[in-house]
Design a protein that fits this description.
Length: about 270
């Protein structure tokens, strides 16, 4: 038969139906995949919100944060659903723009590691960092100093404290340079230099000249704020950098759902 007279095969109806069913199946699978992804995101957000609200409640109770103060909680790491499936949330960060811990007032950041799904199990641990400025330090120093504080300066990681001795109505200016630190869970300030009326003087000379009046400033002074902190939290450092004062501590493994996390320490 010639090419002009050749008859091309016509696609039969069953073949068309098979291709149509194949396309339909692909569309259905795509829709299912999209729904699963959307559903997973929604469930993950629900789980994240639940975990963050739970930790927020615990932190408010442990640090006595008033309801009017915002507490920002964020679950870090991969999908919350995946973390829950492993039985433990990797890390939760908490930010408080304002917090008062005893005489210490400032902003705080709390990091809690290894939060178990089973609330009868302890967390892996955590850290707390509280930051304040010169104004906050001035308030804190009211509990340290044996003299009225008239000025506070932060110089080279140390504190320059200005005050005066009042002798029979005569005020004698005194400046004390102190090194900050932490010892046995207490905040400390250790004097390293003195200036009386603009001239350098030693601790022994101060004690000899002013007796009991100088006893409150010539030795290392300490301040305990454990009674305002959860018992499992232990202070580790008091550091001054620039105009920022930072107090840091660690949290021992503790069950968040137990009274130990909300029970305050003792001084």
């Amino acid at each position: 038969m010639s090419a002009a007279g050749r008859v091309e095969p016509v696609e039969t109806s069953p073949t068309k139906k098979k291709r149509h069913r194949g396309r339909t199946a692909l569309v259905v699978l795509a829709i299912i995949a999209v729904l699963l992804i959307v559903g997973g995101v929604i469930l993950d957000n629900v789980a994240r919100s639940y975990a963050e609200n739970l930790v927020q409640t615990k932190v408010r109770s442990a640090l006595s944060v008033p309801a009017s103060t915002p507490v920002d909680v964020k679950v870090e790491g991969t999908s919350v659903l995946y973390q829950l499936a492993t039985g433990r949330l990797q890390k939760i960060d908490v930010t408080l723009p304002k917090v008062s811990i005893g005489a210490l007032t400032g902003s705080a950041k709390l990091a809690v590691d290894g939060v178990p799904v089973d609330q009868s199990q302890p967390i892996d641990g955590g850290t707390l960092v509280v930051s304040t400025d010169q104004a906050g330090l001035r308030e804190l120093l009211k509990s340290f100093s044996g003299i009225p504080v008239t000025s506070v300066d932060l110089v080279g990681g140390a504190v320059r404290l200005g005050g005066s001795f009042d002798i029979f109505g005569l005020k004698i200016p005194l400046t004390v340079t102190l090194t900050p630190g932490v010892k046995d869970g207490k905040l400390t300030l250790a004097p390293k230099a003195f200036e009386l009326n603009g001239s350098s003087i030693t601790a022994a000379q101060l004690a000899k000249s002013f007796g009991g009046l100088a006893s409150g400033i010539t030795g290392t002074q300490s301040l305990c704020i454990a009674s305002a902190l959860p018992k499992p939290l232990h202070l580790k450092s008091l550091v001054i950098k620039g105009t920022t004062v930072t107090v840091a501590g660690t949290i021992s493994p503790v069950v968040l759902n137990a009274t130990a996390f909300t029970t305050k320490g003792t001084c």
